Amino acid sequence: MVVAGIDVGSKMAKVVIMDADRNILSYVMARTGTDHRETSETVLGEALEKAGLKRDDLEKIVATGFGKISVPFADDEVTQVIAAGRGAYFVRPSARTVIEVGAEESRAISLDENGNVRDFALADKCAAGAGSFVDAMIRYLEVTPEEFGQLALQATRAIPMNAQCVVFAESEVVSLLHSNVPKAEISRAIHDAIADRVIAIARRLDIRDDVLLIGGLANDIGFIESMKRELGKEVYVPEDYPPELIPAIGAALSAVQGVR
Amino acid sequence: MGVRVRPFECWDDFKRYRMEYYRNYLEAKENGSIRWAGSAWAFDPVPAGLGEDVYPLTGEPYGATAAFFRDFSMRALETIERKGAARDLCGYMRNYWGSVAMDRYLLADGAEIEPFPKPDFNFTIHICCTHAKWYHYAAELEGGVPTYAVDISVGPGYLLNDKKIEYVVRQLEDAIQWMEKVTGREYDDELLIRAVENEARSMTLWSKICKLNQNTPAPMEEKSMFSFYVMTLLRRSDEKVVKLYEKLYKEVESRVKRGIGALTQEQFRFVTDNPPPWPFLKVYRYLEENYGAVSVGSIYTFGLGAAWLGMDEKGENWIWEPAPTPEEAGYEIHDRRSALWWTAMFNLKYRASWQHEYSHWIRKQETYQMVKDWKADAIIMHLNRGCELWNMSTLEVRDYLVRNGISVATYEGNMADPREFDEARTFNVIDSFMQSLGIEKLT
Question: Which domain of life is it from (chain B) (predicted)?
């Protein structure tokens, strides 16, 4: 039996091909773009090709992510919370708190010892604690995403960002640039601000070890450091797979289990 | 085999009363009658002593009705915001103010009437940062309407004493003199006494009806309960409201005996806390149709409309048992003072929605006990941006419930501002919550 999990996020679409023994045979990640349906077809085709499989080989396809309704060929759907939780437990069974920061959403999930979701909290209607905010800041600072994260590690002092709203936070960053504050310190201020907002969501839950950080922002070393500092504890990121792939893995696991 | 369901026989009676209520207020002046406006939490029996032709317009239900009719609500909200009202103020209040500012009055069926019928006076209570200010500003918008607000900052009920009750009673005595002055009418204590007795009967009957929903299958789902409970907020001191609740009680009791439920398939029971997002009551239908999930009650509908024993004498445990009427308590109401004393005590002590505004600990206890007593599998909490009063302890309560092993979901919204509700996200929260609990969608 071979199945697929597909996660259509607001920025990236991800596909995982998995066998009945829960081995990941292939995966593909690509920009979602504007045509979700076409993108999902494309990434699935690429993932199948990488695994040396055909569409008919798939027994079940489970979709997740905000664009899950744009995957007409999916047999089933699973919510992002469940997919992220299952995927997180798969890559790190000791994870009890999962914090996911995607392009437009952040969420925190509490898992029990069997990997079941015991509680969750979502950020609503605000991009200040999500990856799209980081994208905007990277453009302002005229650096690459990798440089942006590294810069934060070079900061020698912490500068608080007061604005609660992404729009006003951008204004604050512009003011700091005009005041000749080094980019390193601005980068740390941004990372700390995002971490503050994300942790505020996570604190609705009982934050227990291990804390696993997933989603695109988990690729950002500056953000990881801010999270560790603000939480006052170790924060892990997936070692064997890209952090933004985890919900797609969870969707594939759901397909294997044949349950939502 | 599914549960038997059937429509409520008294449904039309409730609907008719609600239609007449708004129309009576509208047409009152044609017959020389009196109109008053105020919070649904106000001491409703007190103006009743001015005569049998005194018609109230309570602000919160009016704001909720306005919110339900989204097009009207949007116009009302934008009108009042253009006059400077901030968006984080009470959603009901902004709809009410907007309606006054537009000079358009809304009937229960969504029909709009021009102009907005100005009250002879405003009579309200002051329990939060909003209630008194609501009618002070409404009075300004209306071109100067006499306004009286009663301060009730003497709770919670289990710590009540005669001195605290007296503080409220004296304000009510003053209010009666003030009403006589602003209306030119002589006050009738006999009408007051009847109204006070009716208030207790209405609220206690609603408590007993709510208790019946502890049965499985639940005889009522909350969307229907919204249409029933509101009578206690429109005019609970009205004899007709008592009759409606007597009829409803008998019908619900009969449904329980005959095994008639709210849903054909009840596979999940939950309670809620805050006022619902009135423009998006489809949230309840979504839960029912997709998951066989029935909302068996809420702190809002139980707490506002009913009278309960509440916290025990030690202030440790909440008791969801109906409060006594004067007759059951052996209390004789024979004159103005004894009537005012009873209504002050009754509301201060037994009105659940007042208790948890005095103490977050009480809110935790009443919510926890509601989940237990109504045999709910979970609570779904509305992080309601439209009411600071109701929302101020929501996340503390959530934390307490989770620590005590109760499953909780939260969603963000606004009880009366359609611009602050994201339907897709809310359904996503519901799906995530249900899936995390292993509840399958109905096929």
Answer: Archaea
- Report the C-alpha gap between B231 and B66 in whole angstroms: 17
- How would residue A124 be classed by pLDDT, with cut points 50, 70 and 90? low
Residue B402 touches chain A, beta carbons under 8 Å? yes
Are B383 and B353 in contact by the 8 Å Cβ rule? The answer is no
Selecting from A82, A125, A204 the residue whose C-beta is nearest the C-beta of B436 gives A82
Q: Which helix (H) or strand (E) holds B80?
A: helix B70-82
Domain check: are B128 and B73 in the same one?
yes
Q: Give me the interface pTM, i.e. the ipTM.
A: 0.81
pLDDT tens digits, one per residue of B308-320: 999 999 999 999 9
State whether A206 and B402 contact (CB < 8 Å): yes
Establish if B419 touches chain A: CB-CB under 8 angstroms.
no
What is the pTM for the complete model shown? 0.90
pLDDT grade for B1, boundaries at 50, 70 and 90 = low
Q: What is the pLDDT of residue A260?
A: 40
| Among chain A residues, CA nearest to B410 | A121
Give all strands of the β-sheet with B268-272 in edge-to-edge order.
B293-298, B268-272, B378-384, B407-413
Percent share of chain B, pLDDT over 90: 91
pLDDT at A190 over 60: yes
Domain that holds residue B339: 192-437
What CA–CA distance (Å, rounded) separates A5 from A248?
A: 5
Average pLDDT taken over every residue of chain B: 95
Domain check: are B277 and B145 in the same one? Answer: no
Closest residue in B to A254 (Cα–Cα): B435
Q: Contact at 8 Å (CB) between A107 and A131?
A: no
Q: Is B440 on the interface with A (CB under 8 A)?
A: yes
Number of domains in chain B: 2
Asked if the Cβ–Cβ distance from B436 to A121 is below 8 Å, we say no
- A129-156, pLDDT tens digit by residue? 677 888 888 888 889 989 999 999 999 8
How many CB pairs lie under 8 A apart between chains A and B? 45
Rounded to an integer, the average pLDDT of B87-112 is 97
Q: Which residues of chain A make contact with B440, given a CB cutoff of 8 A? A: 260
**What is the residue-wise DSSP string for B216-265?**
SS-S--HHHHHHHHTHHHHHTTSHHHHHHHHHHHHHHHHHHHHTB-SSS-
Asked whether residue B280 is domain-assigned, the answer is yes
Chain position carrying tokens 């009743």? B48
Domains belonging to chain A, first-starting first, are 1-80+244-259 (3.30.420.40), 93-237 (3.30.420.40)
CA angle (A104, A105, A110) in 5-degree steps: 160
- The token pair that represents A228 in the structure block: 């560790």
Per-residue pLDDT tens for B12-25? 999 999 999 999 99
Contact of B254 with chain A, judged by CB distance below 8 Å, is answered with no
User: CATH number, domain at B45?
Assistant: 3.40.50.11890
Of B154, B187, B220, which residue sits at a domain end? B187
Which of B166, B187, B208 corresponds to the end of one domain? B187
**How distant is the Cα of B406 from the closest Cα of chain A, in angstroms?**
10
